[in-house]
Amino acid sequence: MSQQQRRMLDLVNGLHSTGVQVDIDLPQIAVVGNQSAGKSSLIESISGITLPRASGTCTRCPTECRLSYSSQPWKCVVSLRITTDRSGQPLGQSRNETFGSTIYDKKEVDDRIRRAQLAILNPDKPAKSFLNDDEPSLTEGNSLTFSKNCVSLAISGPDVADLSFVDLPGLIASVGRGGNAGDIKLVEGLVTTYIHKSNCIILLTVACETDFENQGAHQLAKQYDPEGKRTIGVLTKPDRIPAGEEQSWLKFIRNEKEPLQNNWFCVKQPASNDLKNNWTWQQARQKEDEFFTATSPWNELEAMYVRYLRTKNLVERLSQVLSDLIAKTLPGIQREIDGMIFKTRQQIGDLPNPPPANALNEVAKLVKDFDADTRRNIEGVPHKEGIIQRIRLPAEKFRRVIRKTAPPFLPYNNSGSAHSLADPEFLKQEEDGDEEVSDEDDEDESTAGLFVESVDSICVNEVHARMTESRSRELPGNFPFVVQREYIKDILLQWENPAIWLCDRVFQILAEHTKELVHHHFSTFGQGMLEQRIQLIMYEHLGNCLEAAKKKVAWLLKVEGEPFTVNNHYLADYKEKFLVYYRRARRDAKRKALSPGTRRSSPTKMTSMAMVEETRSPMNRPRSVFQSASIDEGAVDPITEALTALSRAGYPGLTQDDLPKLLGQDDMEPALEIMATVRAYFQVSYKRFVDNVPMAIDYELVRGGEEDVFQLLWSKLELDGPGAHQMCIDYAQEAAQVADRREELEKKLERLVLATRRLINS
């Protein structure tokens, strides 16, 4: 390898040491094969070391080999890389524990590896204790049968190639007596955690002594690399091919069968007897070369396929493929890690706050913040969903419903009259600025209990009959006040339901808003016990405020039960306006009834009287004839016209002050007086009521709901009691799944940050 390639390989090895391969796909080579497929011999031939040969050896945990060329004498450092806990869950930062002193004699490696694997399989015991055992056994008394934690070998020397790979436990086809059938799936799952990643080069070992189709390692590799782009095949034990089957195995070397992008290779390792004779690594390589040179059909292969024979050619290809993969993926690794750090921090931030160091202080702070936020919302916030904005709509609906309870008086003699009565212009002018409620606003508004029963129109003759029946000792021309009071009380009876509806609707809005505020401030604290407790306290508190508001509204209804006002001018002004309004309606009805038979050639007393009536309204009457003319010189003043008509009719010398005297007395005038008085009083009382009720609700329920919230919660939660500290600690406990998730994410973040530091310092 060049210096640049060696530096990149060292960098990837350093990233592996952080444990970040749990989170990102780092380039690596994984040696995969069935048990007895010759993996151990292959590892020995690549690394130059001797592995333990006892039963069960090198099959219980991954063994990582980091090989690097060095001009210094050969050495091997054995360490334990702990990336998961006893239950197999990833740790935050992996632990790299050096296991024993540096080895300078290759003969000591197999014993050290055996002891290291024992330490991995027995995590409850101190790792150092396994360095002192006389003859450790891998087959008995272990806490774990397999582990994801690995033994790491850092080997360097003048005869060592630059290469890194991990030897995985061999796939198990079956278990013997006393074995655990679950180990078959366990090992397969362990192998899968490596080879399913797209940056894992699969070094697939296949023994030539066993039928190819019966070797499950190939099927597993093909499952995760169906196109063979990242699999390098290795045929082992070529000296044990059954007679007559040699050509079928040569098809792999020619890449004719199960073709792979990086081809199949074949290696020859020392047999058991050769190992007993203590062959050196150099002797093994020499014997391998002699085998492929002298043995048919390997020595008959075309020259272009000879490069796929022998261990040294395999090592060169592995080194080149790994180097190319690292060069291709390394630039994107930093971006991937940065992205994962950002995402992991976001995920941690999305979790509820962890239990605070001082739970009581934290609860007190949350309560204080909630109290301040409640006050701020009650004072009003400038957005559509504010509590004040949401209350305004039902208050406006309440006002409009109360306004519709105005007594439906008609100045006609019977309800079957064909005459219609338009709304007074002076009321339309007053209500031009009223807030309108759109259909869209109505969609989510509950109106149950808001509507009042419709009332039949009350004609003037009905009013006259009622006042006549009610007269007792009154002098002629006088009528009892009880008639007006009864009409007023009939109106007030319709006000109770809308007032109670407004109380309930404001309570509903306030309760929903308070629930949202409580959730906003307390939902991330603990498992929700504190939020639930405060929700109950606040709902009960608002319920008490609702009862106080309803009592105040009931008092207002009771007070309104007896007609009263000191706003005499307002009442008199409305009475005069309504009296003119009713009189004009009667006059218009009479004129309409007479108009078909009335001669239009000369003015009559009736038309003259109509003109006089026209002048009665203070709204229509000009200050003087001259002022009227000055306003519109082209218009004829109605008073002048009336006086002229009367003079022609035989009533000369009349003045403006004489005009009212000419009007005849309407028999229904007393009834019209009662109607005007009741209607005027309605305007006074209705406007007073539609202000007082929302004000009472605002004072008792809205503002009352936020008053002393801090003191209320402090008292109800007993935060000054002897058990307050422990209670708050209990409130602060987070759910087990949240705690586990937080620990998982924090460990992941720790690994990623450490990996970033490795990249920066490389």
UniProtKB/TrEMBL annotation:
CDD domains assigned: DLP_1
GO molecular-function terms, A-Z: GTP binding; GTPase activity; microtubule binding
Keyword 4Fe-4S listed: no
GO CC aspect terms: membrane; microtubule; mitochondrion
GED domain residues: 671-762
Coiled coil: 728-762
Domain Dynamin-type G: 23-331
One GO term (biological process): mitochondrial fission
SMART domains per UniProt: DYNc
Highest taxon listed in the record's lineage: Eukaryota
InterPro entries: Dynamin, Dynamin_GTPase, Dynamin_N, Dynamin_stalk, G_DYNAMIN_dom, GED, GED_dom, P-loop_NTPase
UniProtKB keywords: Coiled coil, GTP-binding, Nucleotide-binding
Protein name in UniProt: GED domain-containing protein
